[in-house]
Amino acid sequence: MNEEYDVIVLGTGLTECILSGIMSVNGKKVLHMDRNPYYGGESASITPLEDLYKRFKLPGPPPASMGRGRDWNVDLIPKFLMANGLMGLFEKRRFRKFLVYVANFDEKDPRTFEGIDPKKTTMRDVYKKFDLGQDVIDFTGHALALYRTDDYLDQPCCETINRIKLYSESLARYGKSPYLYPLYGLGELPQGFARLSAIYGGTYMLNKPIEEIIVQNGKVIGVKSEGEIARCKQLICDPSYVKDRVEKVGQVIRVICILSHPIKNTNDANSCQIIIPQNQVNRKSDIYVCMISSAHNVAAQGKYIAIVSTTVETKEPEKEIRPALELLEPIEQKFVSISDLLVPKDLGTESQIFISRTYDATTHFETTCDDIKNIYKRMTGSEFDFEEMKRKKNDIYGED
């Protein structure tokens, strides 16, 4: 291990694995290590079900009604991926007119603006223009544009319109949902990017204790493990490896629920995402519900996994998520966790230590993608170009 690398990555959460793959594709010499013997970090998929019971310190094994333990792959932090509805149409004509406007909107073509200046007109004024009610505004901003607060309302409308376009185009791609969820759970994704990194020369070491991150003159120079030192120019890691360089900005409560039925009023869907806007429940933060099932090879036949999450606002977090839990009843088993929201204290440009943020309460990957792109820009000084990565990938795999 006494070698020099361009980049060392600590932790195998999805953020770290994606960045490891990207850096390898970009020609960097990458060493990727994790103290755990498995991929995924805090977003790991737990199998068999017996291990989930042990992790949450529940007494005894799962009941026989849960089926075979090996049939379960339970994501601790589930996230849907946007492919490129759970609410009926209300105020049909006005909302339809708004969606047609969004579909036709092109920020490069002023003929599509219809009197709206995308760089100056606020989203609040756009909603007024189409005379949309508060329920529709809540739905559009939080379920379509995927904002977590209402701060966007007083910002220029261009970004919000493009977010809604992404949702609509993703929905059109497959017809029923704008989201994707990997079979066998999210644990497959970090491994997929690990394989991509390996193809481009990246080295992986699991179950590797990290003794010290070595810094000289304020800049990282290597990592010490089992008495050996691997030198590097840059370091990527999750917050658990550098607790002195991160700060707590809040907490998230997550409740994993095992059900024997789909969620009511979802047309017996085998998967869905429900977002309860904060205005609807007198909160500052949205409440998220993600449900998946045996159709995704993550649960025994006839079983469903629903995970409720939100940002903690009081000293009684479980009371905060009651509106969501009521949607799921009856619940066979609950697994409750409360975790800290950690963010880096600085950008990492001086130390060259680039730290990811812990996963927030959202049940989609948009905020995680933002973090990945942000770290990439801080490391390289340039924006991430997905098309360029696809071209490099095709050199190995061939055209899709």
Could you please describe the fold and organization of this structure?
By secondary structure, the protein is α/β, with parallel strands linked by helices. It is 29% helix and 23% strand. It contains eleven helices and 16 strands. Strands 1, 2, 7, 8, 9, 10 and 16 form a seven-stranded mixed beta sheet that branches. A five-stranded antiparallel beta sheet has the order 12-13-14-11-15. It has a two-stranded antiparallel sheet with strand order 3-4. Helix 1 runs parallel beside helix 7. 40% of the residues are buried. One of its GO terms (cellular component) is Golgi apparatus.
Strand and helix layout:
Blueprint: E1 4-10, H1 14-25, E2 30-33, E3 45-46, H2 49-55, E4 74-75, E5 81-82, H3 92-104, H4 123-129, H5 134-144, H6 158-174, E6 179-180, H7 188-199, E7 203-205, E8 212-216, E9 219-225, E10 228-237, E11 246-259, E12 272-276, E13 287-293, E14 304-311, H8 317-320, H9 322-328, E15 333-344, E16 353-355, H10 366-380, H11 386-397
Parallel strand pairs: 1-2, 1-10, 2-7, 10-16
Antiparallel strand pairs: 3-4, 5-6, 8-9, 9-10, 11-14, 11-15, 12-13, 13-14
Keywords: Acetylation, Cytoplasm, Golgi apparatus, GTPase activation, Membrane, Phosphoprotein
GO molecular function: GTPase activator activity
Organism: Daubentonia madagascariensis (Aye-aye)
Could you state the order of secondary-structure elements as H and E?
EHEEHEEHHHHEHEEEEEEEEHHEEHH
- Ends distance: 36 Å
Q: What is the tally of beta strands? A: 16
Shape: globular
